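User: I'm putting together notes for a lab meeting next week and I want to include a structural view of one of the chains we've been expressing. I don't have a solved structure, so I'd like a prediction I can at least talk through. The sequence is below, exactly as it appears in our construct file.
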Amino acid sequence: MSHFIVVGAGQAGQSIVTKLRAEGFEGEITLIGDETAPPYQRPPLSKAYLLGDMELERLYLRPANYYADEGITLVTGRTVTAIDRAAKTITVGDDVLAYDVLALTTGSRPHRLPTAIGGDLDGVYTMRTLADADAIEPEFKQGASVLIVGGGYIGLEAAAVAAKKGLKVTLVEMADRILQRVAATETSDYFRTLHTAHGVDLREGVGLKALTGAGRVTGATLTDGTTLNVDFVIVGVGIAPDTRLAEAAGITIENGIATDACGRTSDPSIFAAGDCASFPHAGVQMRLESVGNAIDQGEVVAQNMLGKAVSYTPKPWFWSDQYDVKLQIAGLSTGHDQIVVRDTDGARSHWYYRAGHLIAVDAMNDPRGYMVAKRLIEGGKNADPAKVADPATDLKALMRA
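Assistant: Thanks for the context. Below is the predicted structure for the 401-residue chain, given as structure tokens.
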């Protein structure tokens, strides 16, 4: 009987094992994760879970009995230390497991501050795992001072939670504006206004020079010379694909674990999916850091592990919750040369165009605008910018155009 092993018990790994069973695979499946918790959702960690609005069990992607019921061996709290590609085995502690097909869904690791500037002081946190969220939660005491380093989505979501809990929040972003890497100026402006309205001290074009403290962080010096007293620090300065296991095994790495359109790596018996994996798109090896990609790519990989030849076509979508605003994003805005703003009764959306063609949308409390734009983008259809900007336009009519 064939044995399929999936290393990495996150969203992509869960997607693969679920799809394998749905496709009728009756062989042995082992899903291995280095965290002690079963597969869970990560996005709520910096939002509802940290706010106390979501219980632990609701984070889990499947009920506790799912794995046994489906004949899936779930191994948690164990780290795979080596792959022997010639023998087709993996090493997990003192155990050696043989595989017929292997999938790597090892995810990503957050960038941390260098030790030289105080990154190893107590009270300095990253926000990536359930353990991170549980460690940070006791720090969220009303009146405490938190410094958030990084103005991307993780940093802004943490700032929103801290502000709602009554903390004194300072956020520094080294770039000229928050969300500079991922969003248009208009979207940055929207969220800057939102956060400052909630009392966040938001400083752009300013970085962290050093953290200070004897054992535990108590202060910070910024690149403009400002000094701050802080009770704790949250670092949200991006992530890197976790390619360590694959790289040690001699698997090709290019912007993550390089795969072909079917999710197969340079070893024909090994696949990869999720944050750790790159795939060919528009002439480059693209990597998407999102739940949607982990799910969709994982399902394609599962089918191809079974011998099919299904190519992965990305349909990027993302979301972020900050205060009472739900941001929904569809498409990829890279290379846009025009932004069209649509504003109707508190619902706002920014439509991205390149050479006159719709490529992406940022929708703030505008689910209708998001869904219409998403369908247009995925269908390869366009939308007249003038009509999009006109609040009197019935968006659904754009899909019939």
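A couple of points you could mention at the meeting. The domain at 324-400 is CATH 3.30.390.30 (Enolase-like; domain 1). The chain is about 25% helix and 30% strand.

User: Perfect, that's what I needed.
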